[in-house]
Amino acid sequence: MRGFLIDAPEYGRLRSWSDGALIIDDGQIAEIGDYETLSRKPRTQPVRWLQSKRVAVFPGLIDLHTHLPQYPAVARGTSELLPWLRTQIFPLEREFTGPKGRREAGAFFPELARHGTTTAMIYTAIFEDSTDAAFHAAVKSGMRIIMGKMMMDVGSYGSLQPTKIVSISLHESERLCKTWHGASEGLVEYAFSPRFAVACSEKLMRGAAELATQYGAYLQTHLAENREEIEKVRNQFSWAKDYTEVYEKYGLLGPRTVLGHCLHLCDRERAALAAAGASVAHCPTANLFLRSGILPLEKVRAAGLRVGLGSDVAAGPELNLWQVMRSAIESQKARSFYEPETPIPSPASALHLATQGAAEALGKGGTIGSFEIGKDADLTLMDFGALLPYRQNAKNAADLTAEDIVSLCIYRGGPPAVLETFVRGRSIYRAPEPELF
């Protein structure tokens, strides 16, 4: 594959080949370098070249936090988290079952791929049937997916009697995990998914943690997204010194735990998360939309926490991870107006959070996230000429640097510029127009 190759293997640093080439063999990156060098190399087997001068090739984009059944509600509602859940989201999730749930599950994954996303960590609703249908759709899509059935037993929108919710939720989640964890040649994995402490009892949280450990699965939940949420946790678990201690006590924190948001944490909490090896899904578009706050990104990174980006649809108003990268930069700029010492992430830093940083948050930094020989060929191909004013052609774009192209993608990128996405070297989405090669 020939194009302008760009990755961000370290926070704040780009690496690029302006006329670069990747050779993919059996789904993995076999060689990487300048096109002229690799194209002239003597070989025992022929190479089938895919070439285009207008293509920027990036590692596949990774969405660490999104909600499949919420997608129809994007950009709706003007309230903050808890009333928004009650008025917009719980009614929608309640309908994510039966034929409707199956239809939506089948439509979601192609939409992710159309946005250039190759890996996603996803919550469904509380229902086993639609979650099972979502896994079938995930396998069919060819994407790299980590997903789980939403678990909640306090204020649940389901129809089960309160005394039965915990045992049934745990049983259904375990059954789904047994069926799907490691499916599709390891591309599909399970995440036990207690919503957050406000909606979960001790028994449910402990049970989810035990099952995740038993099966080597992931665990995902939300932490310290909203001030009202934190106050409810303080009242519900009055023995705990802070929100994070609730998850510590019930065994939810570990190297395969991904926590959404983590906006309002103290130093002790960040240190505790880092000590447990947990990771943070930073969701800046959602945090702005629901007025939840701005993550002190430099403090999270200074604590040693692994951080990646999440769209958090539908609190986040879109699946476009380039826009999430933009919000990751702009939200820190907004902080700098009243906290002048705030470091502003560069476009290179934002790209790292959406690729290698997110891969490391999932424990997959050696498998995906950057261009290294032996890594899986998960790729996002962008038509950078389409992002220039008047859709300039390759000749007019010849003087662009890697920094220019990344900035164009972050501030102007989206589905119209996504040409093709690959997982393990297999095309999972190709734009119908224009022809790529």
Automatic annotation (TrEMBL):
- Could you tell me which InterPro entries the record lists for this protein? Amidohydro-rel, Metal-dep_hydrolase_composite, Metal_Hydrolase, Metallo-dep_hydrolases
Which residue ranges traverse the bilayer?
Answer: none
Stretches assigned to the Amidohydrolase-related domain: 57-395
Q: Which cofactor does it need?
A: Zn(2+)
Q: What Gene Ontology terms for biological process does this UniProt record contain?
A: guanine metabolic process
Short name of any one Pfam family annotated for the protein: Amidohydro_1
Gene Ontology CC: cytosol
Q: Which UniProt keywords apply?
A: Hydrolase, Metal-binding, Zinc
GO MF, any single term? guanine deaminase activity
Superkingdom of this protein's organism: Bacteria
- What start-end ranges are recorded for coiled-coil regions in this protein? none
Entries under NCBIfam families matching the protein: PRK09228.1
Spell out the protein name for this chain. Amidohydrolase
